[in-house]
Design goal:
3 helices; 9-stranded mixed beta sheet; alpha+beta
Length: 249
């Protein structure tokens, strides 16, 4: 009693649980068919094919975290070597400023034309994808602003079982931060963004298994909003799972 917001959250949770029990997916979290490229296949929370895919929930809270899980059985990651990192990762991660320099690590995208991009994107629709198709048919190469990936960064050399974490903060200094298997990718940090954005992934042509890239069916990405299913920790306790805005049904 006396806390109306808590009661509202309880009612929302109860409705979601009841719908799930009846075999009806929750009406909030998910991938948006309307905002996703027609060349992307959506199955539940999984995406494959090629192109841009957006979730249907905008990022409206001050700090949010979600994960993408990589399914690529043909390319397992080798066992990790002994970890000699110090304990300064978290502090460095919070203060990083993107400088665009190549640190020479395996996460440099310079040598992987099939690197997937992660981050957020603004609202997209049929007109956007039609205009993008026209540009490609004319033989021109779309810029990151034109193809919808301006607020995304490539993460190359992904392997089966990898986890890409995305942390977005909008209070103080707006920032988009990326992690690979729990380790911050400082070169992928994006500072200062505005407007309504949605979780997004971009799968470039060729990464989906066609051509000579892979011998299996290609890469599949699973979008995970449920904290219980996260495989890694968010970079800070303030980054909670992405919540649906009130009023979205």
């Amino acid at each position: 009693h006396g806390n109306s917001s808590l009661n509202g959250d309880d009612q929302s949770t109860e409705m979601t649980s009841r719908n799930s029990a009846n075999g009806i997916p929750p009406p909030t979290h998910g991938l948006s068919r309307a905002m996703t490229a027609p060349t992307i296949q959506i199955q539940g929370f999984k995406v494959s094919g090629s192109g841009l895919a957006l979730a249907n929930i905008p990022v409206e809270q001050d700090a949010a975290y979600w994960e993408w899980h990589v399914h690529l059985p043909g390319l397992p990651r080798p066992p990790p070597e002994e970890d000699n990192d110090d304990d300064e990762n978290e502090d460095d991660f919070q203060d990083v400023q993107m400088n665009g320099e190549d640190d020479g690590s395996d996460n440099s995208s310079d040598y992987d034309p099939y690197a997937l991009k992660f981050g957020v994107a603004t609202r997209k629709g049929r007109v956007f994808y039609q205009s993008l198709e026209n540009v490609e048919q004319e033989g021109d190469e779309a810029s990151s602003r034109d193809d919808g990936t301006f607020l995304m960064r490539p993460i190359p050399n992904l392997r089966h079982g990898d986890v890409i974490g995305v942390a977005v903060q909008q209070s103080d200094l707006p920032m988009i931060q990326m992690l690979l298997n729990g380790e911050p990718l400082m070169e992928c940090t994006i500072n200062r963004f505005r407007g309504t954005v949605f979780p997004a992934v971009y799968i470039p042509p060729g990464a989906g298994g066609e051509g000579d890239r892979l011998e299996d069916d290609g890469i599949t990405m699973t979008l995970e909003f449920d904290e219980d299913n996260f495989k890694e920790m968010s970079p800070h306790a303030r980054f909670g799972p992405l919540l649906a805005a009130r009023g979205i049904i």
